Amino acid sequence: MNKTELIAEVAKKCGLSKKDAEKAVSATLDTITDALCQGDKVQLVGFGGFETKQREARMGRNPKTKEAIEIPATTIPVFKAGKAMKDKVAK
User: Rounded to two decimals, what is the model's pTM?
Assistant: First the structure.
């Protein structure tokens, strides 16, 4: 499912126009992204949680030249599914 299909499904389930559903979905995703950028965690009970983690710098290898390169440290977003979501998907 892509973003367009998600918007169409939200519009159908909530009885909204696609334009209103797009605003709601975009606002939700932007709010989650902004919170993660500020270093906050986002917990959605029954769904899961979003947070950021630090990935340490490490040595890698260019597969084309076999030359060793340093991959810099970075911050990555992480999602962990909640118990209710795990149980529903497992059925």
Answer: 0.80
